[in-house]
């Protein structure tokens, strides 16, 4: 009888553990945003010694590039750089106190470093199957670990703030590293233009237009001075599809002439949408949706081409700067059937007023590097558009019922100097800082009193001509926590105008609640086991 009871208890414990593990996985899955096009982006799926070099360990699917034995532009006193060391660091081997931030997800992070010499390196990955003319967003969280000296066990940042540098790029597969003529690069970000830059994770973001179906993305990093430690950590790199297409970009002709390379296979057709009782066709935004994919899906029912459907859908929904999962977008207004002929711009303008009252305020997720739309509308060209929302549930994502936040000060900095400051009113956002010079800027929010940040509080954006970038901040009422003036002290996000999963802290909190629930269940089961043993 005792053995039977023990067996039953064992089965119950295993079942609870399985349920708890499944819940952890589901919670992790729920934090994911748009589909990541990269292979092994978090470095959890294997690594290898590149070129059989013991000191060079690289995640599978990636390649490390470096300068060795020669100098590079900007190196102090023209000193030669040396081959760095790299490792895919497993946190299960132990994390030094205070360095938990180096892991953004999973148990692996990539570390590239060299001491007492300038260092210039990059990692790259080939990405096939891109859509020529489509814009894509490369997201690279990088922790710059450049150390001038160690004092009292603490790392002292460099006295040369521009010594550490980062840039991103994309070019046709086969282009040589640092080929400026073939690879489209962002500018260099440095500690002189972004704060915080050292001993903090900055999330660098670069948007580019695919000029080939097969392209290579590049993440470059260097330190120009021979400090005691020149190191860079990376984790959770991503490549995401944006909704913007440049129809003037076509497949390049193959070498030697001939016809352009064929385009990729046509997309799988979507089912015909069913109108509601009032005749309206409404689309509910799903994870991974963009305005462009929605336009492609509904172009036929609207009697338009995809290129014409895109501005028409925007007009029907008051030109939203953001779209959010669960948001309803009007495709065909109530009482109106799909046009038999292509509508004129005047017709589209007339329908805009009819649906304005039925469309909810545009909403957004807190990770604009994933889903926020970059636009090229003339009135917001060379602009940074900002907004803040009241993240009541604190999950770092803007829900349908979560409104805009008033009394948040959002400042724009250029080269460390304040360019402009805007105080939100909770009604007229997003607000756009317009007519900016093409350059790197930092956008930082100062939340209202008794509010703390639930998203990254500081972004550095590189604005390019003719483009704009949208950034939205999440805040939550928390009267027991003193508001931090420098809301970007822990993590800075960097973007260019040419969507990332929830932060590790948020994921850890969710997992912690699940583990606590599992622990309580185990205690209860243990009590049941004791009773059963006594009865037996």
Summarize the helices and strands and which ones pair or pack.
Layout: H1 2-30, E1 47-49, E2 57-59, E3 63-66, E4 85-90, E5 108-114, E6 119-127, E7 134-147, E8 149-151, E9 154-156, E10 164-172, E11 184-185, E12 189-190, E13 201-209, E14 215-223, E15 229-234, E16 238-245, E17 281-284, H2 291-302, H3 306-316, E18 328-332, H4 345-355, E19 383-390, E20 406-414, E21 417-425, E22 431-433, E23 439-446, E24 451-453, E25 458-463, E26 468-477, E27 491-496, H5 504-535
Parallel strand pairs: 13-27, 19-26, 25-27
Antiparallel strand pairs: 1-2, 3-6, 4-5, 5-15, 6-14, 7-13, 7-15, 7-16, 8-9, 10-11, 10-12, 10-14, 17-18, 19-22, 20-21, 20-23, 23-25, 24-26
Helix pairs in contact: 1-5, 2-3
Low-confidence stretches: 8-33, 254-269, 340-378, 482-490, 498-512
**Cα distance spanning the termini:** 6 Å
Beta fraction of the residues? Answer: 25-35%
The CATH architecture assignment of the largest domain turns out to be Sandwich
CATH classification, class level of the largest domain: Mainly Beta
Which class of secondary structure composition applies to the elements?
alpha+beta
Radius of gyration: 26 Å
Q: In one word, what is the shape?
A: globular
Number of strands: 27
According to CATH, what is the topology of the largest domain? Jelly Rolls
The H-level CATH homologous superfamily of the largest domain, spelled out, is: Galactose-binding domain-like
| Sheet with most strands | 11 strands, mixed
Helical stretch tally = 5
| Tally of distinct domains | 4
What is the percent of helical residues? 10-25%
What's the mean pLDDT score? Answer: 75
């Amino acid at each position: 009888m005792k053995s039977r009871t023990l067996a039953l208890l064992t089965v119950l414990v295993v079942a609870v553990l399985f349920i708890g593990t499944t819940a952890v996985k589901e919670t992790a899955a729920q934090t994911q945003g748009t589909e990541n096009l990269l292979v092994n982006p978090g470095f959890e799926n294997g690594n290898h010694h590149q070129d059989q070099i013991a000191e060079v360990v690289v995640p599978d699917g990636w390649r490390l590039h470096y300068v060795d034995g020669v100098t590079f532009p900007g190196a102090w006193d023209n000193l030669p750089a040396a081959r760095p060391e790299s490792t895919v660091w497993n946190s299960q081997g132990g994390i030094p106190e205070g360095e938990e931030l180096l892991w953004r997800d999973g148990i692996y992070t990539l570390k590239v470093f060299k001491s007492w010499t300038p260092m210039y390196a990059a990692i790259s990955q080939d990405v096939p199957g891109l859509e020529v003319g489509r814009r894509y967003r490369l997201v690279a969280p990088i922790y710059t670990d450049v150390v001038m000296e160690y004092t009292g066990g603490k790392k002292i940042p460099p006295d040369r703030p521009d010594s550490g540098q980062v840039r991103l790029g994309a070019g046709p597969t086969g282009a040589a590293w640092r080929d400026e003529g073939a690879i489209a690069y962002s500018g260099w970000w440095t500690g002189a233009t972004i704060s915080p830059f050292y001993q903090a994770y900055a999330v660098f973001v670069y948007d580019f237009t695919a000029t080939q179906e097969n392209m290579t993305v590049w993440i470059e990093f260097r330190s120009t001075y021979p400090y005691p430690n020149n190191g860079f950590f990376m984790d959770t790199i991503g490549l995401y599809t944006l909704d913007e297409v440049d129809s003037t970009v076509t497949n390049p002709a193959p070498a030697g002439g001939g016809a352009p390379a064929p385009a990729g296979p046509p997309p799988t057709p979507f089912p015909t949408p069913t109108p509601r009782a009032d005749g309206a066709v409404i689309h509910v935004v799903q994870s991974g949706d963009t305005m462009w994919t929605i336009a492609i899906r509904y172009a036929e029912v609207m009697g338009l081409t995809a290129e014409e459907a895109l501005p028409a859908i925007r007009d029907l929904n008051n030109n939203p700067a953001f779209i959010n999962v669960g948001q309803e977008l009007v495709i065909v207004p109530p009482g109106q059937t799909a046009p038999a002929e292509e509508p004129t711009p005047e017709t589209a303008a007339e329908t805009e007023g009819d649906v304005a009252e039925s469309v909810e305020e545009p909403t957004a997720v807190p990770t604009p590097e994933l889903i926020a739309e970059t636009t090229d509308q003339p009135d917001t060209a060379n602009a940074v558009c900002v907004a803040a929302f009241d993240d009541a549930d604190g999950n770092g994502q803007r829900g349908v019922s979560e409104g805009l936040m008033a009394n948040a000060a959002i400042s724009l900095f250029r080269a460390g100097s304040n360019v402009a400051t805007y105080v939100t009113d909770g009604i007229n956002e997003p607000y756009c800082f317009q007519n900016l010079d093409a350059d790197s800027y930092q956008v930082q929010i100062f939340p209202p009193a008794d509010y703390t940040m639930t998203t990254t509080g500081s972004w550095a954006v590189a604005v390019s001509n003719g483009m704009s970038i949208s950034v939205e901040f999440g805040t939550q009422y928390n009267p027991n926590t003193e508001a931090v003036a420098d809301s970007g002290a822990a993590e800075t996000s960097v973007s260019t105008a040419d969507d990332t999963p929830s932060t590790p802290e948020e994921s850890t909190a969710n997992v912690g609640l699940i583990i606590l629930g599992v622990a309580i269940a185990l205690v209860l089961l243990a009590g049941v086991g004791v009773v059963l043993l006594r009865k037996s």
